Amino acid sequence: MPTITYAQALNDALREEMRADPRVFLMGEDIGHHGGIFRVTKDLIGEFGVERVRDTPISESSFVGLGIGAAMTGMRPVVELLFMDFALVAADQIVNQAAKLRYMSGGTVSIPMVVRAQQGGGRGNGAQHSQSFESWLAQVPGLIIVAPSTPADAKGLLKSSIRAENPVIFIEHKLLYNSKGEVPEGDYAIPIGKAEIKRHGRDITIVSYSRTLLFALEAAETLSQKGIEAEVIDLRTIEPLDMDTILESIKGTGRLLVVHESHSNCGLGAEIITRVYEQAPDTLITPAQRLGAKHVPIPVAEPLENAVLPQPDDILWAVEAMV
Amino acid sequence: MPLTSERFQDAYRQMLVIRKFEEAIRSLYQQGKIRGSFHPCVGQEATAVGGCWALRKDDYMTCTYRGHGQAIAKGLSVRAAMAEMLGKATGCSKGKGGSMHFTDPSVGLLGANAIVAAGLPHAAGAALSAQLQKKDNVALAYFGEGAVNQGVFLETLNLAVIWKLPLILVCENNLYSEMTPSHETTSVVDTYKRAAAFGMASIQIDGNDLELIYETVEGAAAKARAGGGPMYIEAMTYRLWGHMMGDPEIYRTKEEVAQARENEPILRLGRRLLELGCSDSDLARLDTEAESIIADALQFAESSPAPEPAEAFTDIFI
Prior knowledge:
The structure holds two protein chains of two kinds. Chain A contains twelve helices and 14 strands.
């Protein structure tokens, strides 16, 4: 298996799906000749032309809306938002429109559209370029939400997302694009809605996804040297949530820590932990914990940003306090 | 292709169906049988019928919460529309969409929308879809002049021009944005000038003249099908009823409304039909036919079952 970057894995997925299905086309800012600021759409315009790799104006509401109209009428648009923060500029089209049109039409229309966006902090992009929105997007019925952490998952899940019949918010992380990993060659897809146990362990279950999943794995290695074996679950899909994998894991470990970069307050960690107490109240031997961004905007200076976003050491300390 | 006398009569009946549909809804609303809001299109029937009848069935259309008439004119079943208003399982959205979300893709109706201007990019996306698939379909978006200060309206104008989309934008300018005179809140209230500023072909026409609307939209569609790009049509009309049920209409005088009634589109088309050789009894017959279509839809809707509660949990995903 070749080792490639996360960005290249996404690029491969787009290219393969565009070759396989003429209905797939791309829209977004600077995705054409420029190839995207993170190079995800690099060279695609050369193969597929300006009709299928469409540079848009800085006009998120309209081009997400055009994606919806195209998706309703036989196309499979993949729309790129330069930063997830800009989803708020297109919030009406994502939340009031894409998520609801199928339902409001009594199932007579469908929106097979992918909205790709990179999110998250760690590089000092400030409060309007570093946010993580999966927790509140998960409050919107009608959206599939995917957030891969590895190049292999990125490719397999993007292919599944493009093939899906429903609107998918495909969440990338700006600091994962250069990360490398083995990616199977050729056509393969990873099913939406399936978590993966990325590391087995007996003492505690750490649930995470996207970049903090790598932090969890890093922390798990350090903990292992101290005799604590953490099981690390990569959710990969936020909605629908794979609770079965989590519940099965905590049967063995009896402890649960949820880690994510979106804000802790009313966040996904709260949701997962609540479901655990609802669905398996007697499984845990210590109270479940969560780690997310603290309840302030994301600052720029490194010590400030590190104080706000969960770090590998925070995971370490949280686990040590629990076991 | 100009409308034949027979087709004019059909259009007259269709406009009456729309008028009577709204009258029936008002009555049901007053009886407490309609949930939510109802935004009547009474007085604006010519834009609906003239615009939609100039399109093909497989052309696309989006409209607004004041879109009952447009949806019916595009081909939505009157029975399914009435049942949807009453929240029945046989409604076009099985009771999930209601008054503001009539949708039927089988007749090109991609949806009415409850967010002002939000349907414009959907129509533009459908136009893009036709362009990418090398099909000659066009898309038409209806909206009111109240939509022209929304960002997505201006954004869609820009993209439609840049990408030369087969898109027809029909602005029904009824002078009032919800309950405020539009000239008080809008910098260039002749909205076709805004489209012109974006480099889009645009025109302002009498929106109560069925024949003129039909011909204008037909011309725009022919041009768009041939790759000539988008067109903006501002149809000047008047909403004879309030913005919605319960609107006290303090923003206009009774005299103004009475004057507008003299110019309303059904009356005008009736006069035109008499000029074309129809008799009063022909018009009365068309009225009776429209009446029976509504009576049938009411009977169908009233006797239809309510949706099962479990229906609330379907149609989210495929």
